[in-house]
Write a structure and sequence with these properties.
Keywords: ATP-binding, Kinase, Nucleotide-binding, Transferase. The protein is an alpha/beta fold. Helix content is 35%, strand content 19%. The two termini are 16 Å apart.
């Protein structure tokens, strides 16, 4: 069961009046070493509950966690798609059992955890856009993994996740600056008591 706070967050995100529709949303922790996959998962459930065909993408190839709590296997997934070993996208998308919510798990990474550049990321996100109304991508902190910056470049908006009394202001500013350098649209910060 998700919190009312996630439902309110979903409503607020949908109410944003942006130049472009908010179809692809990147969610990333503000601090290195942090994980906030639960926030992304619960927000995805909130979008699905509201009747939006929603896809969660676990882009944290070092510490995949979105599959946890959804009762789905972690592989195959995104890594297989990026390396060409996964076949078509539909072969690695997983139905979660929650109406309107599917998951593209991270998969099992090989020695090269971040196997692609920005161009391939853009092509992948274009293909995913045809499969869901809302795509929520969970990725590692932007100031430590260039892969997250490539995802941010091709997303419609990015939201930083900060843990109350744990995320340092300096980390939040570093993350925002890293995202702004690649001209990502930073929509705001989710404060999380996780």
């Amino acid at each position: 069961m998700i919190s009312e706070a996630c439902r309110i967050l979903r409503a607020n995100l949908e109410a944003l009046r942006l130049e472009h529709p908010l179809q692809v949303l990147l969610l990333t922790p503000a601090s290195p070493g942090e994980t906030a996959a639960e926030v992304a998962r619960d927000l995805g459930i909130a979008f699905a509950e509201a009747g939006r065909q929603t896809m969660l993408v676990d882009a944290d190839l070092e510490r995949p966690r979105l599959h946890e709590g959804l009762g789905v296997p972690p592989s195959p997934g995104l890594y297989a798609l990026l390396t060409g070993a996964g076949g078509p996208i539909d072969a690695v998308l997983v139905e979660t059992g929650i109406p309107g919510l599917m998951l593209l798990p991270a998969g099992t990474p090989g020695p090269d955890r971040w196997p692609t550049g920005p161009r391939k990321v853009g092509e992948l996100l274009q293909a995913l856009r045809r499969r869901a109304e809302r795509i929520l991508i969970y990725a590692p902190p932007a100031q430590t993994v260039s892969w997250t910056l490539a995802l941010a470049e091709h997303s419609d908006g990015t939201v930083l996740i900060a843990r109350v009394r744990r995320t340092h202001r300096a980390h939040l500013l570093q993350a925002r600056e890293a995202l702004e350098r690649v001209h990502a649209t930073v929509l705001g910060v989710i404060l999380w008591h996780g």
